[in-house]
Write a structure and sequence with these properties.
mainly alpha; 68% helix; 566 residues
Amino acid sequence: MLLAAVIGFVTLLAYVRTFRFEFVYDDTVLILKNPAVLSSGHFWNYFSSDAVSGFAAPMAHIYYRPLLLSWFRMNFLLFGLQPAGWHVTAVLLHVLATVLVYAVGRAVRLSPSGTAMAALVFGLHPLHVETAAWISGAADSLYAVFALSSFLLFLRWFHGGRKASLAGALVLFAAGTLCKESAIVFPAIVFAYGWIDACPGASPIMSNIAGRLRASLRASAGYVLVGIGYFGLRLWSLGQVGGHVTSLGWGTVVFTWPKILCFHLWHLVYPVGLSEAYSIRYVSRPAEPGFYLPLLALLVCGLALYAWQRKSDTKLVRLACVWLLLPLLPTLDLNAFGIGEFVHDRFLYLSVLSMALLMGLAVEKLQGETMSGQFPLRGSAVCVAVGSVLLALTVGQTGIWKDDLSLFTRAYQYSPHSRSASINLASALASHGRFSEAKAIYLRSLQDWPMEWTTIYNYGYLCYQQGDLAEAEKYLLRAIQIYPNNDMEHFFLGLTWNKMGQREKAMESLQKAIEISPKKEGYHFALGVLMRAAGNEMGACMAFRQELALVPNSAEAAAQYRRCIQ
């Protein structure tokens, strides 16, 4: 394990500079503005509600991640809102996952140099920058730690270990599902492993059919039961098993798959020019560009892996294919993501294990090593060379995650037509007072995405902030027309109408916002102020009392309420 510790330390060094980085991207919603993280008494609510209820528009109520919220809460108790500590623990999670990959390499009988190569590739692969350098990216490394630990215990049980190992594996799998939904593919992974590794002494026919099926069912039965329990828990807490953000036709979804998989494979083998966002267009018909060529590339890759497996006569190539494809399955439901949001580096977090295993196998075959062999000089040289290249690439990529402006400037430079890159850069520019640049990016984005709710709402809100009330009214009304069930659009439309002197309409809009989010801080207070200005003292008094019920320490609401009852 000394070698594993050394590799873990090198991985830690690759991300040391991130300890000075800020909260970025969705950290604001998930952490900085999340009462469930910042205040006590919410632990049991983690298990009975969604993880991202602060998100705007239809993104809320589809993610169920109680252990991730628990992780955030623990970090808050330890470090407050000082980002350095959060970054340290995020990197340590990735280091732990890397050490577990080393253990997996030994468990699947890679040679010493092959195992070292696998761990180095996993720990230092630039695709992991998004996960390790971004605080909220810990969702992937956290679930991966549970998944890899579960796989190690599963291997021990499957190859003759005690039932306690299986019990531990199932508990760890359950924990993984409560960190991120992607862990639900694990029953399929162990089923595939059972099929690959089944019945070495059986007859060819039995080994190929009955024996493999029996071994696969034996391997996955417990995982399937835990998975059913997880879906039941989601149904109880969220009222739904899944959830969709968009409504693409299944033709578009399926025809876009080759393009997505080809894009992922390219970044897996050539991790250069990475970004938070990418401009990947949907493919609606086979005749469109972006279908046949990626499909052909995938077939060539598949044939190459098949030839390698036949020549090497090892199960590791097949196991690597399992780890490549199955963790990606949840990301192929394109309707679960916002428009254009179906490709991210973090989606490949566990799939990088496939590249790690293949690189480890390549080093092993190059060296002609056995599992029990000594760590040879040639293997050491190859590991150092590959590790050095990956280390340089990773360190070079981390800098873009230091703050929102750096992150989204890079994303917009690489993907100027990306919906999210445009929205996020414009928001970052506005937060730095660069309003004219932000407006220009919003308007340019609306040319590409004329019905994009977030862009329309954000532009309307920016106009409200700058006092351009006519434009604010126009775009906030457009946002409501597209998606009428967001509280913030009604709230700021109400404030806009109030500034335009249309007080009755303003109060109606604020009441609509409260109807959608009755527990939102500040809404009742704003309504009370408008009611008092309109001469409705009784209504104002009730609104201030409701605000105090939500925020007992609000000095402004308390002062207004005292004026009411005097």
